[in-house]
Sequence to fold (788 residues):
Amino acid sequence: MRSSQERYIAVVLPFALAVAALTLVAVLSVSIMSMLRAYVAGESHWSKGQKAAIATLQRYLVTADEQDFQQFRNELAVPLSDLSARREMDKDQPDWELVRTGFLGGRNAEEDIGGMVWLYRNFKQVPLMARAIAYWKHSDEHLLRLRDLGERLHATPHAARPAQDVFLLELQEIDRRLSPLALGFASAINEAARQVTHALLGVLVLSAALLAWSCHSYLRRAFLRRERLLLQLQQSQAEAFAEKELVQVTLGSIADAVITTDQEQRVSYCNRNAEQMLGLPSDMLVGRPLDEVCRLQGAEGSVHLHLQSADGRQLPVDRSLAPIHAPDGQAIGQVIVLHDASEARRHAAQLSYQATHDELTDILNRREFERRLCELLAGLQEGRQGEHAVLYLDLDRFKVINDTSGHAAGDELIRQVSQLLQATLRERDIVGRLGGDEFGIVLTQCSHSDALHVAEKVRQAVVDLRFLWGVRSYRIGVSIGVVLLAGRQGNLKEVMKSADAACYMAKEKGRNRIHLYSDDDAELSVRQTEMEAVSRIRAALEHDRFCLYLQTIAPLKPGGQAHAEVLVRMLDEQGGLIPPMAFIPAAERYDLMPLLDRWVIRHAFAALAQQPPGTSWAINLSGASVCDEGLLEYVLAQQRACGVALENVCFEITETAAVGNLAQAAALIQNLQTLGCRFALDDFGAGMSSFAYLKHLPVDYVKIDGSFIRGILHSPTERAMVESINQIAHVMGKQTIAEFVEAEAELACLRAMGVDYAQGYGVGRPQPLSEWQAANKAAKTTQIDALS
Ligand SMILES: Nc1nc2c(ncn2[C@@H]2O[C@H](COP(=O)(O)OP(=O)(O)OP(=O)(O)O)[C@@H](O)[C@H]2O)c(=O)[nH]1
Fold:
C-alpha cells in the first residue's frame, strides 16, 4: 500500500511539472522576445548611426568642418562597434569583454548584452537568425568602405580633393547599399521575433491545453474514484449492517450468555441470556466493571465455576474466554461465554452415580467396591497403619425365595438385606453388592477381634430379618467369609479370592456361619486349587484352548463297522496338553460340563462333516448335559450349521448320569434317536442295579465297564459278568462294546463271547484328530481283517 506521502506526491507532481513547464516556456518566451527586442533596438541604433554617419560625412564634404568629421566618426563607431562585437563572437574563444564593449559601443543596453550574446551563439544557425546575420555581415563591407571613404576624405586636403561629386557619388552608392541591408536585417529580425512569438504562443497554448487536459483527466479520474469509493462505502455499510444484525441475532439467540468487555474490562455488550444469568438488564450491565456484575466462584483457571447472579442465585457454569484484537494486534477487550452447566453437571453426576452404584439396591456396585478396596490396599502397601477386614457374604438358599415367591420377591429381599447391612454398619465401612445374592463389606479401621464381632452382628441381623412376601414369611441365613487385613497384604484379586473361598467354606460347613480365612487352611487351599482350575477352564473355553482326540472302536464281527469315540483335551497357555483328569472333575463340580460338552459337539460336528461318508463318531454327554433343556436345540442348530448327518453321530452317557436323571435321559435319548442319532450307555455294570435300568433306557449300545474286561482272562466271575451283560444286551436288541481292551488274548476271548466291538489300547490309542484321520484312512479295512 502506498503511503499518504507517496499518494500526495503522485497527485501533486504532474501538476508541479506542468506548471514548471509552463513557467519555463513563459520565461523562455519572455527572454527570447526581449533578446529579439534588444536586436531590434540595436538595429535601430545601428541604422541611426549609419544614417547619421553618412549624413555628417556628406555635410563634412561640403563644410570640411573638423567637427563634422568627428561626428561622422562618432556616428559610424556605433555600427562598427556592433561589427566588432559580432566578429569577436564568431571566434572559437571570444573575448567577452571585447564583445561587451562592442555591444555597448553599439548603444545597446548593458542588461541586454547577455541575452544578445546567448541568442547569437545559440541561434545563429537557425534559418531566421542566419538570414538576419547574413544581412548584418553583408553590411560590414559597406561600413568599412564608408569608414575608409571618410578617412580618405579627411586625409585629402580640402583643396586637393577631386571633384566633390566623386566622394559624393561613392557615399551615395554606399548609402544605397547599406539601406536595404539595414532594412533586410530589421525585417529578418522582426520576422524572427514574429515567428518566435507565434511558435512560443503555440507552445504556450499547447502547454496550457496539455495542462488543462491533464487537469481534466486527473479530476475525472479522481471524481470516478470518489464515486467508486462512495459506492463501495455504501455497500460495505450495508454489509456491515447486515453482519452486525446477524451477529446480534445470533448472539441473542444462542443458549449461552455472551458478554464482551472493553480494554478496561468494562461490559460493552451482553446478550439476552447474559441478562438472565447475571440477573440484570443490559442497560444496567453495560459500562460496569465485569468483576462487579459477573461474580464467579471456583478454582482459578478452572472452566467449571459457579456464577452468583444479582439476585443471589448460584448457577454452575462453564466459562470460556477469548481476547478481541484490533487490526494492529492490540488487545481491546474480550468475549466471555458462560454456559449454563446445570444440566450437564447433573447428568455427569448421575452417570457417575450409575457407574458406581448397583441399580437394584443403590449401594456400591462391584466395580466401585473393588476400587475402594484397592485404594485401601494401596495405602497398606505404602505402609499406612490400621487394621481392616473384608467380609464376603452369600445369602443361604436364596434361590428358594425366587423359586417359591418369584423374582420380584428375591429382588425385594436383596434390597432389604442391603438396607439392613447399611443400618448395621458404620458410615465409614464400605458396603457393596458383588452380584446376585453376594455382598461385600470392608470394615475400615476395625481391629481384628472387632471384625469377627461385626461379622457375627451382621449374620445375626440377616437371620433376624423376617422377610414377608404375601402370605409367606421367610427367614434366611448368610454365609460369611472373613479376610483380615493389616500391613502389606496381597493385591485386590488375592484378597477377593481369599474372601470368596472363605465364604465357600462357610457354606461347605453347613451355611449360616462365618469362616475366617487363613493362609494355612488346608480345606481352603483345595477349594482354591479347584477354583483356579475352574478359572483355567473358563479361560480355555473363552479362548478355544481345547482339542479333539479320537479313539477307534473296532468291530469284532465280520461286517461290523468301525467307529470312534471323541475325547477332549485341554491346552494350557503355552499349548501344552492337560489330561482329562486334571480338569474334568473340576468342570463337573462347578457346572462347567454343559459348556464343555457343547464345545465338543460344535467342533466334533464340524470335523465329522468333513470325514468320508459313513464315518461314525461317539460323543460323550455329561450328567449335567443330560439335564440341559437347551441341549436338543443346540444339537439341531449345530447340525444345521455344518450339515453333519446325525445318523453318523452316537452319544455316550454314563450309566450313573443316566440313572441319576432317568426321566430326562430317556426323553433326550428318544428325541435324539428320532433325529437319527444313536446312543451308547457308558461304563455299564459299574452301577448297583444296572440291569433294572437298562430296560428304561432305549440305547443302541452298551459299553461294558473296563473294570470287568481287565479280569476276563483270569477271573471266572468277571468273565461271567461280561458274558451275562453281553447276552442280556443282545436279548434286549443292543450291541455291546468292551472298553479298556489291551491284550490280543482279551480280544480273542471277547470275540469268542460274541461281543460286538472292542475299544482300548489293544485296538488303538487316542490320537489327535489329524493323525487319526490319516491313520484311519489307510488302516480302516486292514484293521478289521487283522482282527478277524
Ligand atoms: N431375584 C433375584 N435373584 C437373583 C438376582 N441375581 C441372582 N439371582 C439368583 O440368586 C440365586 C443365587 O443362587 P446361589 O447363591 O448360587 O444359591 P443359593 O440358593 O443362595 O444357595 P447357596 O448360596 O448355595 O446357599 C440364583 O438363583 C440367581 O438366579 C437378582 O438380582 N434378583
User: Anything to note?
Assistant: The CA atoms of residues 270 and 646 lie 80 Å apart. Residues 164-253 form the longest helix (90 residues). Residues 9-218 form one domain.
